[in-house]
Known about the structure:
By secondary structure, the chain is an alpha+beta fold. It has helices at 4-12, 26-42, 83-86, 119-124, 162-183, 191-199, 236-249, 280-316; strands at residues 14-20, 51-57, 71-77, 95-97, 106-113, 130-138, 140-142, 151-154, 211-221, 224-232, 254-264, 267-268.
Amino acid sequence: MATLAVSMFRRLEGLFCVVKPSGVHWKLVRDNVEKNLLKGLNAAPPQSCPQQVRFLRDPGADTETTKSLTLSVASVPVLSKHPLVTGPEFQRIQVGVGHRLDVSSSGVLVLAVGRGNRVFNDLYETRVTRDYTLECEFGSATDDFSDTGRVVERSTYDHITLDKLNRVLAMLQGAHQKALLTYSNVDLRSQEAYELAVQGLLGPEGKSVPILTGLRCVHFQPPNFTLEVQCLNETQKYLRKVVHETGLELRSTAVCKGVRRTRDGLFTLQQALTRHHWTAPHVTRAVQQYYSSKKNKKTRAVADRGDRITTTGGECDEQPPNLNQ
């Protein structure tokens, strides 16, 4: 019979996401989550210690005056199975990490517990996109494209307008859209390409260069501006380089002051657990919400497929003409 801690662990197995703070390594986030989960699992009431039957000498018998030995039957605990001897029931659990964030970045970080690690490969083979918010600033260029790097150039930015910025962003997005089609390995004139595009699954097969599927400015107040990016196969360093190249296209310079991931596939920033909620009960609820949303999505997909089949059948459901008339 499974113990209470084992039952809790089975409910923990799955995917969930947390908010990674800026300036913290992803390994430290994973280790803290693992430590909190172990603490929660081992805090569960342990299973009662098994008993065994032993023959014990009667403490009231005087062995010096009586030649016979008096024994009594007693049920005593098996000390080798006692929690104080065996130690905590869970010594370690496997917590996996999805698409990682570097130290300077923050936002959604997807984690997996136990059997949830097997889902990572299936999840990322569907070519899910990720959303980022980039905080940028015109006027300087650094060796690592961030505001904390060594400044290598300074420039003016008074000539930059929102229209000019939007034109450059549209040009960059158009170039990446062509790369998306090039690496998709699908005939664009086929039915397969159409169905993949409708479902939002048209993307590169396997590894490819970083691809930006969406790029727009959501805030413009020079020298500061904010970009929203949807991308595939990216790194945070590459996103900072995009900001640098945007400044160069505008005949100026720009650095990235902050990278924040707001979505990773099905996981959004609203669902991510903050530092104070990296506990076993909160993670259990997050895992159950993930399975519920996945089940609802699958149900909607089956219903939509059924609607399309019904519609197609309805178009052909005509009575044959009566040739005897």
